[in-house]
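Input record (one chain):
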Amino acid sequence: MAFITLDRKKLKENYNYLDNLFGEHSIDWAIVTKMLCGNKAYLKEVFDLGIKQVCDSRVSNLKAIKAVNPKMETIYIKPPPKRSIPSIVRYADVSMNTTFETVQLLSEEARRQGKTHKIIIMVEMGELREGVMRDDVVDFYSRVFEMPNIEVIGIGTNLSCLYGVLPNQDKLIQLSLYKQLIENKFNKKIPYVSGGSSVTIPLIHQGLLPETINHFRVGETLFLGTNVYDGSQFEFMHNDVIKIYAEIIELFEKPTVPQGDMGSNLEGETFEFDQDKSNERSCRALIDLGLLDIEEKRLIPADDSFDLAGASSDMIVVNLGDNERNLKVGDLLEFKTDYMGALRLLNSRYIDKRVI
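The corresponding structure, as predicted from the sequence alone:
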């Protein structure tokens, strides 16, 4: 069975770097755990880091979080579906909201459960995913402040996830001004301006983050060391906290050009090959990992002399060249991946999850 590993020591070092960075700028932060897909062993590793607040977008994951650590403060980080309101109030201490009718339902359910449910109101700042339109923000807050069993603890925004709209100083200053306007108009204190995520971290390094942005939600950079702003890797963070290992289940020297009449593969793709290379040969390894588990393009061989020759539902073909390492059937090949690749693998029940 293919398996994925989480390196405890490297995760801790990445966490310490971010925690120190945020601490130096008086920023509270939460770890986004949705990539872990509710895996309790991995969640425990995250909780042992010392974080006080985690975010997730699946109720089942929030339930798993509370099962591992009932005292962990949880944030539901997408607009709550109406049918999930009872579970969200039960397992999420905080939710991010954009619709008044949903907040009403949260209020009613919180009253039934004898709780005060905290909310962060998300504002549309150009990404066109979730968020109250800016012209409606003041009216939205005025109505929500009247809701019983609801505590407004923040204003926030999301950027880059849908269309790649990048955060900048101007957008985050605008968000901060809305916070000041609402506090002054309604004589209310709003603790959080939740304008930060992994993609916003470079603004801290550049000295461009407004001081009023005091809450971040970070997942990818913690687990993968990614500079999400430009797709590079932070040199001072580990990019191999997570690794993938797959077993070689066949290894033969074969031609590099298929033989026969060509149609389409299982994904409907068609291929053309240079017939002048029909005499070339290469060692080709089949591994026990397939498109059911991860998209081929998201799998990165640790040995950069290898490349992926193709994939089907349950197997991927790796071109080993001359196989200078003398690999054989039963040996493991090591890979890294990106955020979406890790998300798919961790969501696959066919992939073993291990801590090292």
